[in-house]
Amino acid sequence: MTRFAEHWRIALGALRANWFRAVLTALGVVIGVASLVAVSAVSAGAQKEVQDSIRRLGANVVLVDGEFISIGTGQSATERTITPADAAAIAQLPMVTAVAPHQDMESLTVSAGRNQTTTRLFGITPTYADIYNQTAQRGRLISAADVDFGRSVMVLGLDAQAKLFPGGSAIGQTVRVGSHEFEVVGIQTRKGKLADENLDNRIFVPLPVVLRVLLGGANTKSVGVRVRSEADIEPAQDEIAALLRDQHNLPASYADDFSTEDQAALVKEAQRATTTFRVLTFALGGIALLVGGIGIMNMMLVSVRERTREIGIRKSVGADPWTVQAQFLIEAVVLSLLGGLAGALAGIAVTRLIGALAGWETLISAAAVVVAVSVALAVGLFFGFYPARRAARLDPAAALRYE
Amino acid sequence: MSADGAASILELADVTKVYRDGDVSVEALRGVSAVVREGEFLAIMGPSGSGKTTLLGILGLLDRPTAGSYQLVGEEMASLNESRRAHVRGKRIGFVFQAYNLLPRSTALDNIELPLIYAGVSRKERSRRALEALAEVGLSDRAHHRPSRLSGGEQQRVAIARALVIRPSVVLLDEPTGNLDSASAEQVLAILERVHRGGATMIIVTHSSEVAEHASRILRLADGLVVADEPTESRVALGATG
Asked: What Å distances lie between residue B98 and A298, A347, B114, B175, CA to CA?
């Protein structure tokens, strides 16, 4: 034990004597570990974001989108192919637990007094909240009565509220959409982002108001369909397709005039774009560690050469080959370990920076940091072994004569 | 001081050493036999290239003989592996080199403690014994000086303290005064003589006959062979009076 402590003292002393060289050598390990820590934090964050998004958007939801109705050779500007009867028929399918027809209008400019903002407006029914996990932070959500009576009421996303009513509560206030006025009755709980869209910039009104007052027509663009379980998603898509083709009397040679999508798959797809980037950065981190390891080996070889005489002296006073080997191995390990720890700190800092600048969700796990530092340790052991072995095998008589 | 009756510390029998460098081989030792007894102060002399440094290297287990037998305190050294040799070296042999060979970044005290570290002596005991050894060579006030802040004579005295701190069976000295001015050399020789009188077995390689005069016996080498092995005059004088 005494001797082990002694090795540490000797190793730290030797590194201190050539500290600048040691720092430069450790830099490869620092960069490698930092990128491993940062990439794994970004990865874990992205993974968590996917889970969160799926949870926020509702699990086991199939989104059915209708296409624009063809009129002769042209298309209706607003009218879609999914009818209220279609939605009702889908609701009758055995694996379906709820349906929520909804209609949205994108890039819609709305105003409140002098403030205006561009938002995405959704016409919904109460089942929407059910399927898509919508809750009210304040006030209430769109109710069945709102839908039945076609009330001009509105629920705001948090960011939409902030833009329309900076510094004040929106509840009871009026929002104008074109010439139509809505009374704000509730504020939606924070939803965050999905891919590029800010889900808190959405606003919600009763579906009939959108259909009759803002757009005209009775059909909806989309129907959210919740099925019993994840396993039901694919068969449900097939059944819905068959049902709608039947409802729409489509001949076999005609293409579908609607589409069905697994909502969770959409979320995962959106995240896949960043996967390539992450894999690449991970690989670069690995390469940096490898180069760092080679740097350590190079420095240790130089160090063994420079200290040949010292090794001879130590051997002449009783250091056996194992002791000499341990001394140099510990030196390499100390170097890589310090590099690893510095890299972990740098990685955490970089992660914070990425989180702040790119707005990505990140998740630094203790396990990832421990693994990265352990890898650095392993690099030191691996690349320090050969130089240490060389030192151990030096012939004492020749080492003492070395100038 | 009765060398003849004392137990033998080391015995060499027909030791040869051949250095090979590619196709060229040099016979540094061509069959050396000698016995050194406890308490002896042996000087090995001879012209350069006679094999005296090679012989000292073999005695100190820094080098292996090509053939022949070497027994140190009754144990055959030829067959030991490198690790065992290191332990014997650390336990039984104290070295003093011409070039001092102190670790430049360590203090005098740390240098003296070095053999004790490898011998597994506890920290407290180490520093006690090192301070004691430092006092023996008269450098107690230099304990925390690095070699670069010591004179050549002082460095060599630290090296002597380092050699003595393990209480070795034999002290091997390779031209210990070779780099020193005459005043420092006198001091070092005085210390060595005192150590010898204390009962230590010492073997010194030198080509200075003044240095060799301090020894009790001189072994002369030439071309890798022992050409003479005789007591010195001081030994004779001592024997005559004692």
From this structure: 32, 52, 19, 5
